[in-house]
């Protein structure tokens, strides 16, 4: 992990970050340790308030391990998959690698948009009934990367809305590209971003009647971090809202294979969506490809900018210029994932994580806490009313050596919540549940208001 | 701008960086779209004009920066022309010396490591999820010791990427839209194109074939392919590739010392592209950091693509020294790290295992063999064009041969060569206005193909 040598822990984010920045400047001028260039720092990067959320969580884990070297730390923080990839899939990747040493099997540059067989397989597996073509599927090295490529595509002059709470890459990439305006300490929000609040009070779906128009709407379902999967009715409302406003939805379906009920798995199940939506997705949580790096983005041909120019052309240009395709070995693995045997093997791993989620949900529910999610997504979203999530995070870490993620890392709407991810070995999840029960049963923790 | 140049009819050649699907437009659509269409060859229409007028449009404006781009990215356009040519001559034995795509198999020692890592992912002990976004420690360490051993570049100055092309764009994201940049002219198109996309440039000026706001540093035979720095306007960023794609020129120690001094005097940042360093035959610096003082003014990008045939495997690295500071003293590496953590999620772990194997003694030796093979190809091509009486440049320190066709349009020469010999090259103007009148011939190919291509060149130009 990159070491932030200038600062220790960042407990309260904002003011500490400013201090950190100033200390860098002061240190460097004082020590005369380096000449500065005359290149101005990108003001957009200055607007970022903290580190990206997940490296920050990693850092805290490392610090905790330094403090308690013998602690058996259990990570239910970063949504990092833990279970081995099914053999059929890794075998296909190994075979592909071996073949690269042969004249017949060697491949150089692949199509930037992805291997055609893989694009076809993705279209057939996930979009069969909604008539998405293989030519509308762009293979990526993961949705985090494509989110930024989409921002490059859209440019700095568009406005965005996000769910609040949401996966931090939408907001951070928006700030980086220059769409977001200044951070407002008072609200914990960026000036130009529309935060669509989600909570139990609105069934974790924004009230679109009071949502102002933005050019782009980032919408993740099943949701990270809340775990809520939008219903067909809700998504129809969203698509209609986008159509009425001429907006583009960027629909993140990374967790669609975790859906237990009949919630839509793709935005394109909704009539009219092809003209207003882009869908991003990933093999990370589907196939344990968090390190292998593979995902895809669907840009329908029908999606047009205001002047009538097809968005797919510009996305293709970005993909050809700023990217050079996902690793061919990873793509070979992806293709194996989508074979009948591969898919079946992966389902077993997904079910394993879902069982983990169930155990965690039951644990929190039995403690009388308000717990959400965990049914259609591998995240459990627990409410600690009246609390500050970083404090809860710290308390849990100190007292049970369990890493979680504080809800405020996902936006101001997450302030009183903790996200617990369900990726982990079963024994560890059970152990974690036991530790949490001990901590959170009556009287043991200041955060339990029951 | 030419729409068609953004798209290609599809060809299923996994070794070419082709194409999009058969979405195409005919000129009858011009009335309903806001941009001018150049003459387009493909006439297939997916909707009739009636439908097009009633097709739903969002209210999201197209990114004006992307609209500035004149055509598709260069190499997909070359691939498209190749595909069209194949349709015209289905039985032609087309030889590709265009896109710099490696052709020789990857040495066993490297692929075995990747296969082993793949197998490992199916085991409890061997499974790994998210890796460090900056790259696996062992690989970063090996890169530092292999390439920067005595140059004071440390492991944590190195960021592993999925290729230099991707990091070029990530660097642009770090720099933002309010910086100015200089490029060599001619140069690898990703520098200019990513700059346009980022919003650093003005409009394309057709009369000079340049984007406003970019400083184009002419590199021609007259100046030994090194810019006359006394005539170069200050910019924030200077992209500099050596050994150079497309000219093959390698800057000397003296020249790079002047470049570093120029950057120091101007407070500029050099982005030094060293992707072809191992092709160096002469005794020129392989890393910018061989020049004293470079750590305070330079970033270096590099790639496994042309060393290990990793063009499809996707692996590279970028060095951002701790000493490199923005004008307010803020370390560039810190911002680059933030981008790497937010806009990227690390290179493929299997590719990284391959990279580590590349840097083992056996791996390094194997890579040198493959590089030697391509260098021999280059020699053959250089000799061929020399024997035909052409002025030939490059080929000594890079796998590219830069052939002069005085007073001719390079796209015309490209087309003529393609039409008459079924050989794909790359027109020099695709790399910038000073590339006009040149053709880039790449030396990646099976030996028999390179020999056959040279036979055909001799036939055409005897």
What does this structure look like?
- The complex is a heterodimer of chains A (450) and B (462).
- Chain A is an alpha/beta fold and 450 residues long.
- Chain A folds into two domains: 53-84 and 342-441, Aspartate Aminotransferase, domain 1; 87-339, Type I PLP-dependent aspartate aminotransferase-like (Major domain) (Aspartate Aminotransferase, domain 2, 3-Layer(aba) Sandwich).
- Helices cover 40% and strands 13% of the residues of chain A.
- Chain A has helices at residues 14-31, 43-47, 53-67, 87-99, 116-126, 143-154, 168-177, 232-245, 284-287, 311-322, 328-337, 340-366, 389-400, 426-440, and strands at residues 74-75, 137-140, 160-164, 183-184, 189-190, 194-197, 216-220, 248-252, 277-282, 295-298, 370-373, 379-383, 402-403, 405-406, 417-421.
- In chain A, the strands form four sheets. A seven-stranded mixed beta sheet of chain A has the order 2-10-9-8-7-3-6, with helices on both faces.
- With 462 residues, chain B is of the alpha/beta class.
- Chain B has 14 helices and 15 strands.
- In chain B, the strands form four sheets. Chain B has a seven-stranded mixed beta sheet with strand order 2-10-9-8-7-3-6, sandwiched between helices. A four-stranded antiparallel beta sheet of chain B has the order 11-12-15-14.
- Chains A and B meet through helix 1, helix 2, helix 4, helix 6 and helix 7 of A and helix 2, helix 4, helix 6, helix 7 and helix 8 of B.
